[in-house]
């Protein structure tokens, strides 16, 4: 699984998207960036889900850095994620874009 995930939100966040977030978090990304509709709400949901997974013991230590980008383009956020990977010494290929 990719170390940096960019979620391109084409729809508003709703609780029925929790399974998608769980699947992505199983890959233990280091960075989870959201761009598009409701980016801040998506980010809050990811943060809450990580805390819940850790507290319940389902995924102890579940965490990732999250960023919401409501005013940037998809291209700008992908570039941000690629730069994050470079700073960590990982190839740009570690960036995965997910459309939701």
Describe the structure in your own words.
This protein is 42% helix and 22% strand. It has helices at 18-26, 39-56, 74-88, and strands at 4-9, 31-36, 65-69, 95-99. Strands 3-2-1-4 form a 4-stranded parallel β-sheet. Helix 1 (18-26) crosses helix 2 (39-56). It is globular and about 35 Å long. The two termini are 17 Å apart.
List the main descriptive attributes of the protein structure presented here.
100 residues, alpha/beta, 3 helices
Sheet having the most strands: 4 strands, parallel
Order of helices and strands: EHEHEHE
Oligomeric state, counting identical vs distinct chains: single chain
CA distance, first residue to last residue: 17 Å
Strand proportion, as a percent range, falls in 15-25%
Which word captures the global form? globular
Helix coverage percent? 40-55%
Name the strands of the widest sheet in spatial order. 3-2-1-4
């Amino acid at each position: 699984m990719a170390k940096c995930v960019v979620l391109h939100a084409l729809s508003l966040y709703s609780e029925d998207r929790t399974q998608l977030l769980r699947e992505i978090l199983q890959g233990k990304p280091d960075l989870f960036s959201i761009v598009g509709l409701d980016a801040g709400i998506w980010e809050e949901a990811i943060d809450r889900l990580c805390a819940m997974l850790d507290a319940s013991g389902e995924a102890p230590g579940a965490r990732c850095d999250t960023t919401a980008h409501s005013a940037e383009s998809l291209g700008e956020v992908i570039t941000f994620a690629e730069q994050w990977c470079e700073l960590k010494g990982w190839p740009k290929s570690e960036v995965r874009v997910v459309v939701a």
